[in-house]
Specification:
The chain is an alpha+beta fold and about 220 residues long. It folds into two domains: about 25-95 and about 195-215, Arc Repressor Mutant, subunit A (Orthogonal Bundle), CATH 1.10.10.1590; about 100-185, 3-Layer(aba) Sandwich (Glutaredoxin). The strands form two sheets. A five-stranded mixed β-sheet has the order 2-3-1-4-5. Strands 6-7 form a two-stranded antiparallel sheet. It is elongated. The protein is built from six helices and seven strands; from the N terminus they run ααααβαββββαββ. Helices cover about 35% and strands about 10% of the residues. Helix 1 (about 25-40) packs antiparallel against helix 2, helix 2 packs antiparallel against helix 3 (about 65-75) and helix 3 packs across helix 4 (about 80-85). The chain starts with about 25 loop residues before the first helix and ends in a 7-residue tail after the last strand. It has helices spanning about 25-40, 50-60, 65-75, 80-85, 105-125, 165-180, and strands at about 100-105, 130, 140-145, 155, 160, 195, 215.
Length: about 220
Amino acid sequence: MTTSSSEQGVSLGMPRLPAPDYPDDVRARLERDGREIIARYPDSRSALLPLLHLVQAEEGHVTRTGMQFCADILGLTTAEVTAVATFYTMYRRRPSGDYQVGVCTNTLCAVMGGDAIFSALQDHLGVGNGETTDDGKVTLEHIECNAACDFAPVVMVNWEFFDNQTVASAKRLVDDLRAGAPVEPTRGAPCARSRTPPASWPASPTSGTGPSRRAAARDPPR
C-alpha cells in the first residue's frame, strides 16, 4: 500500500522559509491588497517590487514571513524573492523606527547642505547611519539621489518629500516626529502615522521581540 505525499506530510509546492504565517485577518487583507497590485501588471511577477513594499509597510521591515507571502501569491521560489529583497536598499531587513528619515547626501544635495544636515541629525538624535532612536520613533539614514535635485537639500520621511531643508528645519522636523506632532511634506500625501500591531501577532523570527511598529500602508513608491 502506498501513501500520497500529502498523507506523508510532504509538500510538493515551493520550498517554504521557516517563518510563522500572518494572522488570518492580516493575511486576508494583504491578499486583497496584493491582488489589486498584481492586476496592474501583464506579468504577475512584475508586481514583486510593490508587493515587497506592501509587506514592509505591514511590519516595518521585510521579514521571512513577508517574503514567503510574496512567493506564495506570485508563485515564485523564496530564493527569487530573497534575491530581490536583499538587492535593493529600500527594503529593510531588520526592524526600524516608526519614521524612516532619509537625508540625501548625493552630489548636489551634499553641496547644498545635505552632508551638514546628516551630520547634525546624527548628533541631535544620538544615532549613526541606519540606527534607530531609543524611543523607537526615528531611524536615520543617508540616501542617494531621489530625483528632487531642484529642491536640494531634500529630506524624506517614509517616502514623502521635505524640500529645501536646513540644519535647523531638519532638527525641528525630527523633534516633531518624535513628539507625535503633525508634519506636512512639501508635496504629496501627509506622512502616515505609526500603528501598533495586533496582539495576535507572533513573535518575530528575526528579532525575537515581536514585529516593529508599522507605518500605515499606502501605495508604495513607483
